[in-house]
Amino acid sequence: MRKLFALLIPILLLSGCLGSDESIQEPQEEIVMLEQHFDNHSHQFWNTHPMSMANTSIITFNNSGDLNFSLDLIAKFHEPVLWEQGYLNYSLVYENETIWSIEATTHPQEIHYMNMSNITGSLTVQVQASGSDNQADEEPGDYFVAIATFDLKY
Q: Is the dihedral of CA 132, 133, 137, 143 positive or negative?
């Protein structure tokens, strides 16, 4: 029995020294930074005759990367008897070029998506709408709600 212990003790003491020279590296996860902006627009027309509104917003990004854009849109424009139906035009402009646009007259809630790579600097949001309210019916006046989210990953 003593011979067995005499053999086991040196084996146990030297067992930690029998490793390879290679160092084990843990896998590194890619760090994705996220810059997020929100841009919300809404309007309801309460006038009997047609009226228009417009707004321009500038979204400025501090870095460059891939842009994920989503637009949650609700629009309702009735069809009047004496003039044309109202509308909403929502556009994204990048470097003086329209890169995405939608024109809506009546939309139940819809979500629109767009992805773009290598975005740097500013993105311009242009919103134009025209509408009215028909006092003869009990429906609310023309309206729209546009909720936009801009996620930049770099």
A: positive
